[in-house]
């Protein structure tokens, strides 16, 4: 009697499905922007169940800018993003926006990073959580494609690309050190 081998085939199909999910693409339109859709790709360097979509980065000639989008966790466990990097800036931080003691909104580094809940998502938006680019090494212009790499607490990485978009809102103050005590004006464009 000849036995059929089903388990290895199913394992191969499952592995291929996971690989395709990690390298998926998604088109989106930035809030308040006009023109063609932003194309974002997330690609996992480990078994991270994260995808990044609806990405865009605020145009800026010098100084600071910020990146936005949606990070989804398709896994069964929470994932913590602890840092980010991009070749267009000397420093990249994970930021949150909070109410300062003086009643104004202030940006500050997010202590502990961004936690993406199991089967959940985190929206990066102007005036809320975002990826802050400081010390731009070159201008970010409308249509530019900027590559980002996110690092997770378990050593994984996720890479995505965001398109430069014009946006003039969410002009919070930046509070270095996260205490909200000293602030300087946020960049405008």
UniProtKB/TrEMBL annotation:
Residues 28-48 have a biased composition (Low complexity). Residues 1-22 form the signal peptide. Residues 27-50, 163-189 are annotated as: Disordered. The keyword Signal applies. InterPro entries: LpqE-like, Lxx211020-like, PCuAC_sf. Keywords: Signal. SUPFAM superfamilies: DR1885-like metal-binding protein. The keyword Repeat does not apply. This is Copper(I)-binding protein.
